[in-house]
Amino acid sequence: MKILKNIFLFCCTFFLLQSCIVSDKPNIAFFSGDNDFENARFTSFNVPLFLAKPYIKRALREDGESEAAINMVKKVSKIKVMTVENGSQKLFNDYTNYLNSNHYEDWATIKHNGDNVNIRVKQNGDRIKNMLISVNSKKEMAFVEIKGNFSADDISRMINSFEDR
Known about the structure:
- There is one protein chain.
- The protein is α+β, with helices and mostly antiparallel strands.
- It is built from 5 helices and 6 strands.
- It has one domain (22-163).
- The radius of gyration is 18 Å and the shape is globular.
């Protein structure tokens, strides 16, 4: 019976941790299609929030962050991270067109030292369901997809808490 219990626990652990696996295949919808991305190399992983949330909240508390930042972490349900090496500007432009055609709103574009950071959101009424953060430099790109259920006020409160410092 003890062996069966251990096998069951191992299988459950393996199932829960499979989202932690780093892959060389894209994990964001646009990049998962049959498009030819001209020598682009992808690295992607899903952040296992059931493991990460307690550590993130504790780190925020230890750093003296506001409750607004900690409450934002509670509202996040899924995070995907993907990096692209040898990506082209055409790839990034096609991605931007894809987001526009799928009703993502451009919230912010930040340019710093030749890098562009774009923040786009997909809303359902006043609730934000998806937030996509993309960083585009000359040959490398990074994409973060955050799914959750939060509002513009939640984001504003979090930003204001950082500005007050």
